[in-house]
């Protein structure tokens, strides 16, 4: 018999509607029951494409004994973290407080009947293994403690709640141009010089670190910054993290060389990496980076979009097995290549180039990968054969949830691509129109909705921030003043809703969560709204510069202490210190296609009625020219 999740829209919650656990969605019904019956709450947070969420469901939530214990002694609540990032963010912070390390998914929280957390875990196996306690024994232990000494848990919950209250920074740090070199040195400490990337395995793309390094190289000429960015992007594209067959990037790699991913593909990763590869192309003019960026756009459009909107994620698993859609048997590859007319010599060449062996590189199977970033024609033809093998398989489940912030990230990247290749312009314009129509009706912004449903969940800071930056990218591409006006309105609404004397809140209302200064799965929402305000400060009104300064000052100590994990905020600081350059004039069409490639990384366009083109900073205009080429030359000099 289905539980209460059967009426929910979320694909993740729907995946759990037939569990024997009597799940409730997050809401009053569950919490009133917990209070009335004086039962602790078990909160489980995950998302539809999460591999370990699937593992815990099969091991634990489909187990009759575990379900019986939960149903008798607890009120069980399921949350889709993509649908309610505010709930997830708050309880991830609880996990980090209690365990002194970052959390993840599935997130497992135990709370008192009045929603005060006292225990936090992630994946918990049914029986003890991997050095973890077993879920059934954990439930029994909690029930026993509550029976014998409930005040112990109540007191612990009160202590946790006390530490979760927002605190003010102790001091402000004054930033100057030296932050560029400090950031590079901080990045070097975490950089893998062999395989690229930052931090230890599992390795995540960290697109914001790459973007900031590219900006620093363009500002200062720092060769180390450029090398770290280029090496990371090239290694990530060799195969594994990047799907050489269908295109697109997986969420992260479990090894140091980007070979073995968790196979879920997220809209935000692909949007952000597309931006990074485009910026690398702007910086180096290396065609490889442009090709990867365009490949991402084509993948997302082909596999993860409908009517101009972009789905949130595709699953790691298919037919109950992780990576089954993505990997290959040695024999099936050889047989397919023979059928497609490859000679024995060509087959051996392809197998070697794509690292396909009898032993395999993933549980006896093969993840295609190439050390050569430019594939020969024979290998490209072979990839088409491998694509045909996949066409006979079940494609992983796609979560058709539309998330405003993630769509905005992709739309921003499409506008950037359109300034290089006009074939992406129509897609960018259509997607922007569709997103505003669906998620911004009557100038009220919403966070998420299924592709065929009306939105109900109000927007969070990330939605305002990323939509504003996408609108500003649209303005830079089209010079359509409507985009600039909408960006201005969105930021004003965000200031009203989430801003407090330099501090930004991610969410208000039922759950208050502060916006973090670090970049987690994607760049900080506070840093992203500052990015938008810095643009508005020179395009619309200087008051936004003051809001930007106050925000940077508020978070400055945390930014300074957490480089490079605050990379987006560091890029904001660089923009504030070095200042944007603004090209003003009546006829800016030619500048639109050239401005991305100038050495100076922070250049905006503003349509104004001037006979000549003006080059300005925040305070004044200092050069004029009749042709865009002259403006470009002046920008390259500075």
Descriptive account of the structure:
By secondary structure, the chain is of the alpha+beta class. Among the domains are: 4-163, Glutaredoxin, CATH 3.40.30; 326-390, no CATH class; 460-578, no CATH class; 581-637, no CATH class. It contains 24 helices and 22 strands. A hairpin with a 7-residue loop joins strand 6 (252-253) and strand 7. The radius of gyration is 25 Å and the shape is globular. The termini are far apart. The model has no long low-confidence stretch (mean pLDDT 95).
Secondary structure blueprint with pairings:
Elements: H1 11-15, E1 23-25, H2 28-37, E2 41-46, H3 51-61, H4 64-73, E3 75-80, H5 85-99, E4 107-111, E5 117-121, H6 135-148, H7 150-163, H8 179-190, H9 207-220, H10 223-236, E6 252-253, E7 261-262, E8 265-266, H11 267-284, H12 287-303, E9 305-306, E10 309-314, E11 317-318, E12 321-322, H13 330-339, H14 344-353, H15 377-390, E13 398-403, H16 404-418, H17 425-439, E14 446-450, E15 457-458, H18 461-478, H19 481-498, E16 499-500, E17 503-507, E18 513-514, H20 525-539, H21 543-561, H22 567-578, E19 581-585, H23 589-594, E20 603-607, E21 613-616, E22 621-625, H24 628-637
Parallel strand pairs: 1-3, 2-3, 19-20
Antiparallel strand pairs: 2-4, 4-5, 6-7, 8-10, 9-10, 10-13, 11-12, 13-14, 14-15, 16-17, 17-18, 19-21, 21-22
Helix pairs in contact: 4-6, 6-7, 8-9, 9-10, 9-11, 9-22, 11-12, 11-16, 13-15, 16-17, 16-18, 18-19, 18-20, 19-20, 20-21, 20-22, 21-22
